[in-house]
Design goal:
CATH class of the largest domain: Alpha Beta
Number of strands: 33
Radius of gyration: 25 Å
Structural class: alpha+beta
Strand content: 25-35%
Number of domains: 3
CATH superfamily of the largest domain: MvaI/BcnI restriction endonuclease, recognition domain
CATH topology of the largest domain: Alpha-Beta Plaits
Length: about 475
């Protein structure tokens, strides 16, 4: 039960003692979010702190590795530490964390995410060490009702402010619920933008686009939409309708949702024209890294099957449980993962391409794969389209898929089950010339029908 006495902790922005009714409660919360936005944050979250969420015990960020898709962080590195005579494998990732208070930003240089793969779970620690200004009393206490507010910046910084139960910002948070959630976090991004229910807002906008019918292919630029007649206009046209300007990001963002357009043959069966590319990481070890990708293609590749002179290809589909490729002699294996428990047993494990002698032609270590997977949005929307022309026009279907809660462990399960497969597209042209040209693309892909298994919650919505 909350104490009825005033909290000894001050406002995270002003440092003043707080009393109810000083301002409208919503104003206090919005002021905090506005201050974070002024310092560069574009996504906003709140974590209600349990008694064990303190500087001594670390702060729990949820089971699995889902929090890694929400909190920006640096490279993941394996850390094996000894405790009570046993070796405990875990991994760490630094976080560029800053406390926000009335004086501005104060760096907390030792903040890091701790990954415990055998549980699995993620925690965050190091809030107070080396920090000149921090809400140390709050972060050390076990008081009920405490809240940690976080702001994520596109440049990788994370801004934080802590508040006790009597803080008007916390009271405003109580009054604002129910709010959208992202893992263990309350998602406040839509609250600040005036669109608290981003899911419904996105569905409504896509319904409007669906009802427009055929839309001329276009691409949104700095001077507005411009005609676009290349064959990959489906995504650009949808982005233009949503007001998204292409900026080099792999996945366009609308109200915090990753928007993924895909082509279908009709709006009856909604059969996708192609598989979905999940990520394109380079191998981190094995012959590919030791000798280089050109030597890899020369050793494991094969002459172009259509007869193109001087061209060596390396392709095919490789999946767990599938026989070795007849052209390359390689098959896919997975180490350090227990398919029965669904847990990582060795952080030094990974996905491997091996030959009949057990030579590792290429390896993708867990550390690198986790970093690639964490670039995916926690929430994604898949929108079907059909095309006619030229001149090209697109129509967007009335059945979409809303997916939330991706996690690296779901990816590993799909790899282990043979659902996610390695589908490379490497080629060496002019292989016998003085200057051969190498083109490489290492792709992990999945059939569209199996996408739902990569998210904790996936639902079809009819527009």
């Amino acid at each position: 039960m909350r104490s009825l006495t005033a909290s000894p902790h001050g406002c995270p922005l002003t440092g003043k003692k707080l009393h109810s009714g000083v301002r409208k409660l919503s104003d206090d919360l919005l002021l905090l979010l506005d201050r974070m936005a002024a310092s560069g944050a574009t996504a906003f979250y709140a974590k209600r702190l349990a008694p064990n969420d303190n500087s001594k015990n670390q702060i729990y960020l949820g089971g699995g590795f889902e929090a890694l898709n929400t909190i920006p962080h640096g490279p993941i590195e394996t850390d094996s530490s000894s405790k009570a005579g046993s070796v405990r494998d875990r991994a760490k990732a630094p976080v560029r964390f800053f406390w926000l208070d009335a004086e501005g930003l104060s760096p907390a240089p030792d903040v890091q995410l701790i990954l415990y793969p055998k549980y699995p779970e993620v925690r965050i620690s190091g809030f107070l060490k080396g920090a000149e200004r921090s809400p140390s009393d709050l972060m050390r206490s076990r008081d009920p009702g405490r809240v940690l507010f976080l702001g994520a910046c596109p440049d990788g910084r994370v801004l934080g402010a802590a508040a006790g139960w009597s803080d008007p910002a916390v009271s405003a948070l109580d009054a604002a619920e129910p709010l959208e959630t992202t893992g263990v976090f309350l998602n406040l991004t839509g609250l600040r933008t005036g669109v608290p229910d981003t899911r419904t807002a996105l569905i409504n906008r896509l319904r409007e686009i669906h009802l427009e019918g055929w839309i001329a292919s276009k691409k949104l630029g700095s001077h507005g939409p411009q005609p676009y007649q290349a064959q990959n206009g489906g995504g650009y046209t949808l982005e233009a309708e949503l007001g998204i300007t292409p900026n080099g990001n792999a996945d366009p963002d609308y109200l915090g949702w990753e928007i993924k357009q895909y082509g279908v043959r009709d709006f009856v069966r909604f059969a996708p024209k192609s598989v979905v590319t999940l990520m394109t990481p380079e191998p981190t070890s094995g012959y590919y890294r030791d000798a280089g990708p050109e030597a890899f293609v020369r050793r494991f590749g094969y002459p172009d099957q259509s007869g193109k002179v001087g061209r060596i290809n390396f392709g095919g589909a490789y999946a767990i449980g599938k026989e070795a490729n007849g052209l390359t002699g390689l098959n896919l294996t997975l180490s350090g993962y227990d398919a029965t428990t669904g847990k990582i047993t060795d952080m030094d494990g990974g996905i491997h391409l091996i030959d009949v002698e057990g030579t590792r032609a290429a390896t993708w270590a867990f550390e690198g794969l986790i970093s690639h997977w964490n670039r995916k949005h926690a929430r994604a929307c898949y929108v079907p389209s059909i095309r006619q022309g030229p001149p090209f026009e697109y129509m967007y279907g009335g059945r979409i898929e809303m997916c939330e809660g991706t996690d690296f462990f779901l990816f590993l399960r799909a790899v282990s089950d043979g659902v996610v497969f390695y589908d490379p597209a490497l080629k060496l042209e002019g292989a016998t010339s003085a200057k051969p040209a190498l083109k490489r693309r290492n792709q992990f892909r999945v059939r569209h029908q199996a996408l739902a298994g990569l998210y904790r919650n996936a639902e079809r919505e009819m527009l």
